[in-house]
Design brief:
It is an enzyme of class 2 (transferase). This protein has 483 residues and is of the alpha+beta class. The chain is built from 12 helices and 12 strands. 54% of the residues lie in helices and 17% in strands. The protein is rod-shaped.
Length: 483
């Protein structure tokens, strides 16, 4: 069912239900009020007739004469009022019964003798009181007393249809109100449904565009209602989808590039090894060149092993399979050892390694993994710095220790900095060389290890001026929660 019809049906049901409930209550109230007013009016007539009858005799037995009652009945004919009078023995004496003896039921007369009046809502349904008539009457049976002596009973009533005239008018008014409410409701529902469905159609069209791959679609909204809130959420979702799509494309591009790089890196040592093996097999390598060839083959084999090990190491770290043995220790001696270890590689690139650290620098970390992080950062700096300086700094910060590796190398753009810690990413593939980190895994491993330590890592870089990699490792109890 279309939304506009749902609106119409819903509003129709609400209006009908509301008007029916209110109408039923109002009609019931009006009916009760009409009958109560009629009872009071009939009681007033009965009391007046009783007073008049008592005034005509000392013992109160004179129950008015027929001529007066006929005149009274004629006066009240327009109100459709009917009068019957019974004597002290419950025998009807007015109107004239032509010799037929009509009496009240004993049970009814017993109640009246006690001085209690009887209210009859419809004599045609309460036949035990005064019997049925052609037209249904409602009224009262009222006893007349002279002192404590019952001298007569009057039945005075008016037709039910006369009493229920206001109720019939109320019913007509209720039906008219229902029809007007339905007409107004339909008009309002159409306006509201059009207002809502227009917004929903916009959402539907925008959804179809997104399904076709258009992530530039945005829906205008004014934050007036829940549909506008839905439109706002839709816009936010599309923005995220666009970012995700762009990220997926970038990832696919980097993955393709990585596969090409890995194929190139593996093909080069494998080709070298294969060529040397063929040369040895067919004695194509001079005897005095064999040791050098074997050394080259050994170097290329280690290069392949390193590439495989780095991939395996990264996967173990990323999947939290590496158990960290964290302790608090002074990192000064360890940093000095790392500097000495990396000095030879730095010298090959004509780089100067500097160490600017305090006399003691305590850090809470796994010593072996901390060494791995620093080696990878320094090796990365050497890889992209020629004839420059690489400075290693360390200092204590609030609840932790900060370590920095600053170089004067080629630097990176802001876009490259976003992905530098991702697996397989290399900011400048054209300047790779032998050594740890050329596969693009070194910084990814460092980032994963820092995250596992509950620390932080970031980079500040300016193209052609250099980069500064910063690691903050927090003290025990102050680590960042890992996701």
């Amino acid at each position: 069912m279309k939304l506009i019809y749902q609106h119409l049906l819903g509003l129709f049901l609400i209006i009908v239900s509301t008007v029916s409930i209110i109408g039923y209550a109002e009609l019931d109230y009006a009916r009760n009020q009409a009958y109560m007013q009629n009872f009071h009016r009939m009681e007033g007539y009965a009391q007046s007739l009783g007073s008049l009858a008592a005034s005509n005799s000392q013992d109160g037995t004179a129950l008015l004469n027929n001529q007066f009652l006929n005149q009274l009945q004629y006066v009240l004919r327009d109100d459709e009022v009917h009068i019957q009078i019974f004597d002290a023995n419950s025998v009807q004496i007015y109107p004239n019964t032509n010799g037929e003896k009509i009496k009240l039921a004993p049970s009814v007369f017993k109640i009246l003798k006690k001085g209690k009046e009887i209210r009859i809502k419809n004599n045609n349904t309460e036949t035990s009181y005064i019997g049925t008539t052609k037209n249904a009457y409602t009224g009262v049976l009222f006893p007349w007393f002279h002192g404590k002596k019952l001298v007569g009973v009057v039945w005075i009533g008016s037709t039910v249809r006369n009493v229920e005239k206001p109720i019939q008018m109320a019913k007509k008014n209720l039906i008219n109100a229902l029809l007007v409410s339905l007409i107004v409701g339909v008009i309002l529902s159409l306006i509201l449904a059009y207002y809502s469905t227009t917004k929903i159609k916009k959402l539907s069209r925008a959804t179809q565009k997104v399904a076709r791959g258009d992530f530039d679609v945005q829906i205008d909204h004014k934050n007036h209602d829940e549909i506008d809130q839905l439109a706002s959420n839709f816009n936010y979702m599309v923005q995220k989808l666009k970012q995700s799509s762009e990220e997926i494309k970038a990832q696919e591009k980097r993955r393709d590039k990585f596969m090409a790089d890995v194929a190139h890196e593996m093909r080069t040592p494998l080709t070298t090894i294969n060529g040397i093996l063929e040369g040895l097999q067919y004695d194509a390598i001079p005897e005095d060149s064999k040791p050098k060839s074997i050394e080259l083959m050994n170097k290329e084999t280690k290069r392949l092993i390193r590439l495989v090990n780095e991939n395996l190491d990264y996967e173990r770290i990323r999947s939290n399979s590496v158990k960290l043995i964290k302790t608090k220790f002074d990192a000064r001696d360890l940093l000095i050892n790392v500097k000495d270890q990396m000095q030879q590689n730095a010298s090959k690139a004509n780089d100067q390694l500097k160490l600017e650290i305090p006399k003691s620098i305590f850090v809470y970390a796994d010593p072996d993994r901390f060494t791995q992080m620093m080696v990878n950062l320094i090796q990365n700096a050497i890889q992209f710095t020629h004839d420059g300086e690489i400075t290693i700094r360390a200092k204590r910060v609030s609840h932790g220790a900060k370590f920095q590796v600053e170089d004067t190398g080629i630097g990176m753009t802001e876009e490259e900095s976003k992905y530098i810690f991702e697996r397989f990413f290399k900011a400048d593939p054209s300047r790779t060389k032998s050594g740890t980190g050329e596969s693009g895994l070194g910084l990814a491993i460092v980032s994963s290890l820092v995250t596992q330590h509950g620390g932080e890592i970031y980079v500040d870089s300016i193209p052609q001026k250099g980069s500064t990699f910063t690691i903050i490792l927090y003290d025990e109890g102050h680590e960042k929660k890992t996701k």
